[in-house]
Specification:
It is globular and about 65 Å long. The longest helix is centred in the last third of the chain and has 19 residues, at 216-234. A hairpin with a 2-residue loop joins strand 9 and strand 10. The strands form four sheets. A seven-stranded mixed beta sheet has the order 5-4-1-6-11-8-12, covered by helices on one side. By secondary structure, the protein is an alpha/beta fold. It has helices spanning 34-44, 58-65, 88-92, 114-123, 187-197, 216-234; strands at 2-7, 27-28, 32-33, 49-54, 74-79, 100-105, 108-110, 128-138, 142-147, 150-156, 159-172, 202-205, 210-212. The protein has a single domain (2-131, 165-234), classed as Spore Coat Polysaccharide Biosynthesis Protein SpsA, Chain A. The two termini are 23 Å apart. The chain is built from six helices and 13 strands.
């Protein structure tokens, strides 16, 4: 089983933590980098090969991860010379990828079963399988519904429920065939294209632990919660 990890971003939203470190290497619980936790989880789930897409501060990631033998993994690298979006690096090297593989962001902290995502994707006929998580968003204002200048509805500080992408996907190599190597490709563009073609992705719904380490407040929360979830995340 093969996993492709996106680790080339600048982590601008997580500054100042990412001023000197790439986001996948910021420490969780003062002992483990996020990427280390992901690598250990992938190895425990039966993955044997990992490709790391690196760009900003990529030399630090390469020095930390090496060839992956410390986790029993074979790690290769895809270097972004210029920004290619979320999925552009995959198009560049699609001929070196297996028929079906896992794609994920390098800053995801979750108890998701990565093997189950890929197995479900392989068993289905969809071009893309998206791991999703239920999230509620609180609106701090009274929300009005208006029609022709008149207020027709009102809700005071409602909570809106959404299924959001976890940043983990099962993907088929053939899904990338329509795209040109060397040109940027975003995840949003791919999903919209698939919907327009009438070949929609499928959803792998997950209700366990998931944190997207994108902002300082989320990073602080992850560190505060890590002692309670450490054994679950690391399989100890």
């Amino acid at each position: 089983m093969h996993a492709f990890i996106m680790a080339g971003g600048k982590g601008i939203r997580l500054r100042p933590y990412t001023t000197a470190l790439p986001k996948p290497l910021v420490p969780i619980g003062d002992q483990h980098a996020i990427l280390e936790i992901v690598m250990r989880q992938l190895a425990a789930s039966g993955f044997s090969e990992v490709t790391l897409a690196i760009g900003h501060l990529g030399h630090i990631i390469r020095a930390y991860v090496g060839d992956g033998t410390q986790w029993g993994l074979d790690v290769q690298y895809a270097v972004e010379e210029s920004p290619l979006g979320t999925l552009g690096p995959l198009v560049m090297m699609k001929d070196r990828l297996p028929e079906h593989f896992l794609v994920m962001n390098g800053d995801v902290l979750t108890s998701l079963d990565y093997r189950a995502v890929l197995t479900t994707h392989r068993a289905g006929n969809a071009p893309l399988t998206i791991a999703t998580h239920a999230r509620q968003v609180s609106i701090d204002f009274g929300v009005l519904t208006t029609t022709d200048g008149r207020v027709t509805g009102f809700r005071e500080k409602p909570q809106l429920a959404y299924q959001v992408s976890m940043g983990v996907y099962g993907l088929s190599r053939a899904t990338l065939d329509p795209y040109t190597p060397g040109l940027p490709l975003g995840f949003d563009e791919l999903v919209l294209d698939l919907l327009e073609r009438g070949t929609p992705p499928t959803s792998y719904e997950f209700d366990g632990y998931w944190m997207d380490i994108g902002r300082p407040e989320e990073y602080d929360r992850a560190n505060n919660e890590f002692p309670a979830y450490r054994d679950m995340l690391l399989g100890n």
